[in-house]
Amino acid sequence: MPRFPLRALISVSALALIPATTATFAAVDNSTYKELDAFMAVFERVRADYVDKTDDKKLIKGAIDGMLASLDPHSGYLDTRDFAQMRTQTDGNYGGLGLTVTMEDGAVKVVTPTEDTPAYKAGIKAGDFITHLNGNLIFGGTLDEAVEQMRGKPGTQIKLTVVRSGRDKPFDVTLTREVIELKPVKWEVKGQVGYININAFSKNTGMGVRAALMGIDKALGHQPLGYVVDLRSNPGGLLDEAISVSDQFLERGEIVSQRGRAKGDIERYFAKPGDAAHGLPVVVLVDSGSASAAEIVAGALQDNHRGLVMGERSFGKGSVQTLIPLDDTTALRLTTARYYTPSGRSVQEGGIEPDIKVPQLSDADYKTRPRFREADLRRHLINEAKVDNSVLEDDSKPDPRFAMTAEQLKAKGISDFQLDYALKSIARLASLPAPTKVAARR
Questions:
Q1: Superfamily of 93-181 according to CATH
Q2: Tell me: the pLDDT tens digits for 258-314?
Q3: Catalytic residue among 287, 303, 376, 420
Q4: Could you tell me which CATH number the domain at 185-441 has?
Q5: Active site includes 292?
Q6: What is the arrangement of strands in the sheet containing 282-286, beginning at the earlier edge strand?
Q7: Choice among 244, 247, 317, 319 that is catalytic
Q8: Which listed residue (233, 292, 319, 362) is catalytic?
Q9: Does the pLDDT value for residue 365 go beyond 90?
Q10: What's this model's pTM, rounded to 2 decimal places?
């Protein structure tokens, strides 16, 4: 059964009835039966007296939606369409605009655009609000309704009206729908450094990273100075693939543990012998859009002192969703555990703090654009360590090392400051004397 540390924050629920055992009912106290009686009384009154004729399935679906919404933002029911879509997404091929969105105070908010998709190419950014679709106001509707309108036949166009912090007026963006064929792993050689860009943790991502490591060696004809692993704006995906990716860079040690409701419900995952990256220096890039499975990888390499994490504090989703099939076409997505990094840290709410904070100076809007994280979601799970959000929310402290403007960087030919800083850091690490390099990796 696949484990989903994170899927898209679009919560699409469906009608489903869960058969309960006699033992389960026996454990329910009398007060719960009274509440169920109240529910049935309301249900029957609505069916009988509501101004318009109601649909029983719609009413029950709404009740189930409300029950799951009271738990956390990531639990939900998947009907036939949504279950099939989730399977397709984890296989890395689905239709859409390439947006991960959520609902905030009645407005559709962008969590992250997926790289190389229509939304990404059009310049949609995390934190943007979508207020109109084809000129029609969508504020106050449901997330399902908005997502349904954004879907459509590949090749057709849709106009989005976007509100962005720091801009006085909304602006329109016209996108052409495409079949999104995710390439979860892309790589290239930059100078003498291997660059591995991981966009999602879908099926075979771990194998893709291993192929990238071998491809980089082959392209250079020798080993690189080191590797930059780019996890920015990676919304997560399959836990198994996060473990596989981490294992490519580790010789030994724990990768992640997950702990469920019961004290003894603990699973630990360890690296297998064999570091496919040959012990070379690794820099991991993260930002506020790096979530769940991406945070597992960053935390595993950071805690095992195998990689230097750079960028901004990550999203902070430290929960695991288990996909529980109810029949052949529907399923329950239920939060069943929290995960912990090898040192025992929960990233829930707090995220992964980079070893070196590097702002994206090449983004002219980086100072004004709000960062959207797990702690901003309603009913998010609380970190058991009582995270101080007042400290975590301060992303704007100036650092004298990073004083250049986007215009100045553009004049120097630098379009991605974080990546440029990471590549130069690998070169600096590789130039250190061998004993120092070993100490830095350990």
A1: PDZ domain (2.30.42.10)
A2: 998 888 889 999 999 999 999 999 999 999 889 999 999 999 999 999 999 999 999
A3: 303
A4: 3.90.226.10
A5: yes
A6: 185-190, 193-198, 226-230, 282-286, 308-311, 356-357
A7: 317
A8: 292
A9: no
A10: 0.74
